[in-house]
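subagent[fold] <- orchestrator: predict structure for attached chain, return tokens only, no commentary.
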Amino acid sequence: MTQIASFLAPNLSLNGVDDVVILGGGLAGLFCALKLAPRPVTIVTNAPIGGGASSAWAQGGIAAAVAEGDTAEEHARDTIAAGDGICEHSIVHGMTAEAADRIHDLLSYGVPFDKDLAGKLELSREAAHTANRVVRVRGDMAGKSIMESLLAAARNTPSIRVIEGYIGSELLTEGRYVVGITARRRGGTQRITIPARAVVLASGGIGHLFDVTTNPREANGHGLAMAALSGAYVADAEFVQFHPTALNVDLDPAPLASEALRGEGARLINADGTRIMEGVHPDMELAPRDVVARAIHRELMKGGKAFMDCREAIGASFPEHFPTVYEACKSAGLDPVTQPIPVCPAAHYHMGGVMADASGRTSVDGLWAAGEVAGTGAHGANRLASNSLLEAVVFAARIAEDIQGLMPHPRVRHWAEIDDREDQASKRNPQERAVVALVRRVMAQHVGVERNAEGLQTALALISKAEERCHRSSIRNMVVAAKIIAGSALMREESRGGHYRSDFPEKSAQWAHRSYVKYSQIQALAADALESDVGRAAVKEEHTL
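subagent[fold] -> orchestrator:
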């Protein structure tokens, strides 16, 4: 038996049962662990701590009404407007009201937010905000800087234990309670089992289920699937935000061309130099992301090309103000100072997730969820720019407070050795690599920016058939998450926010509400899709099955 960790606290436990296990080492996971201190916490993370987290890649910043004249109520109104009719209003108002306090928390952990000469926070505006309220670090380095600061704080917190290189595979349950997790060594044959009094899912999003995404490889829906398979409700899974402007340079993940570029006046043009957003939306390039993404998608579907032209609006100041995007462009052989940069939509953020309440509690006892894996209703059908980092810290703090209230007395003895067993079934194989490739291709083709019933049934049938080739739980969890998104999209027969159905292109008053689903319902839809004429034909024509 081995104990694998990047930094270990003095070994502490209660009969070998951890107080709290957090699955995921991004912003939500780290912030929750810090807020729980000095209660002993174990963080289990797939990549080196912080390395596989979308949080570290966030270029925009974190939204908070901290400027004179701005209010939490106005921030809430903008969030609700972007959410297109299905935000949970109480959740939104609570989140925006706590934003300033969470910014102060981050400052206390050493996050170097941009300030003016008077020491006040510098704020910028992003799409669909009515005020300058996005707090940044060196223009486009907020996510990276926040994560670096929290990692430094975590390393100096002896109650936090980190286990790296393991991907969550399943939740352990006893009756209606979650009592721990199992995780598998990434690329290896070991499986670990960690009992716990409380489990917090902070495992990130689902972007890597799609061919083109701005997300790291670790954002593959495994936390969503684990919760669904344990009986948890999933909320709003059909709502996937496609960032309209990833760099279209055949890289995986696709580098992100930040929203802030358009906030500074960059224009979207086609190959002829015509503005793509002309006549599409009165806010032009600052229209909601789903509107911009569809406009670019349609330009590409016509056989055209889409570019972001920063030459006039940003020009020579590009390297200084947007160093991350500039380096990504230069590495792809592009100079954004002197030439338009090619862009395309990419899977970027999941508004839905494991249903969670105002305290982060899921529908399964002993399980909480925070960050992108959670479906709190804060984003509705479409996330407002720079609200993702805010949601992560607000709900991570609430979960920590909730756990402290429910379990006021932490354990006081030693952490047990990890149960680290060989499991040959976790070895990689070519069949499962083919399954991953099929899932990503099918999701991009049929469950992407524009959807319809035939394509969604095709996706469900093909992905369900591919599931028969899954041996490792990590691959099966990807398949399960993909089915949940496709099935939820099939059920919602309207277009709203990030969910666009070409066969139901208008919003429907009948669907002006959130969606909730259990995996058993998705399984029934998938079975119907496999038996349908569309599904049978798709499976027959798919040469990889």
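orchestrator: received. Logging for downstream: The radius of gyration is 22 Å. The first helix runs from residue 27 to 36.
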